[in-house]
Amino acid sequence: MDDAELVRQTLAGRREAFADLARRWSARLTAICHARVRRADVADDLAQETLLRAYRALSTLTDPTKVGSWLMGIAVRASLDWLKAGERRTRPFSTIGSDECLERGRDDPPDEAVFQADEKERLLAQIEALPETYREVVNLYYYDDLTYRDLAALLGVSTATINVRLNKAREMLRERLISLK
Fold it and tell me: Among 9, 67, 134, 168, who pairs with 14 as Cys (CB 3.0-4.6 Å)?
C-alpha cells in the first residue's frame, strides 16, 4: 500500500494507517531533525513532534501523493522552532555512561570497549560539525539506508549531486579524523 492510500485511510478514520505511515517515515524524519539540531536525543523527540503535528494537520494536506515532502517540511519546521526557542540545553550528567553503553561492550576487553566508544564519539562529533548540506546527506544515507536515487528524489537534486556530497563528506571526515590522531 502506498503513502497516499495510507493518508486516505487515516482521513477515513483508520488510525492504524497513520501508524504504518509513521513507521515508514520515522527514520527519515529523525535524520532530517538530527541534521538540523545536531543532537540525537533531541532529534528523536522532534521526529515524534513532527508526526504529532502531521496527524493533527493531515486534513490540510492537499495532495496525498506528496506526503513525504510534506512530512519533511514539518520536520524542518519543528527543528527550526526548537532552535529558535533556545531549548538547547546541556546533556544531563546522569545520562553520560548509561548502562546501555556499558552493556554494549561487556564482552570486549575494557580497554577495547572504551576505545570503540571514544572513536564513535569522535566520529559523531565530526559528522555534526559538517556543513548542513553534507551532514543532511550523511545522516539520511546512514540512518535510513536510502539509495542515491531515493536521496536525490527526496532532496530534489540529481544522483550525481548526492554522490558528490557523500564523497566530499567522507573525505572531510577522513581528513578531520586523521588530524585528530
Answer: 9
| 75: containing domain | 3-84
Q: Which three cell numbers stand for residue 38?
A: 545536531
Spatial neighbors of 70 by CB under 8 A, at least 6 apart, are 54, 61
pLDDT (tens digit per residue) in 88-112: 444 444 444 444 444 444 454 556 6
How many other CB atoms sit within 10 Å of the CB of residue 90?
Answer: 5
Q: Are 117 and 106 in contact (CB under 8 A)?
A: no
Domain boundary among 84, 110, 133: 84
Q: How confident is the model at residue 113 (pLDDT cuts 50, 70, 90)?
A: low
Residues 64, 20: one domain? yes
Q: Which residues of 20-57 are buried (b: 16+ CB within 10 A; e: fewer)?
A: bbbeebbbbbbbbbbbbbbbeebbebbbbbbbebbeee
Please state, in angstroms and rounded to a whole number, the distance separating the CA atoms of residues 31 and 138.
Answer: 9
Regarding pTM above 0.70, the answer is no
Q: Do residues 135 and 127 touch, judged by C-beta distance below 8 A?
A: yes
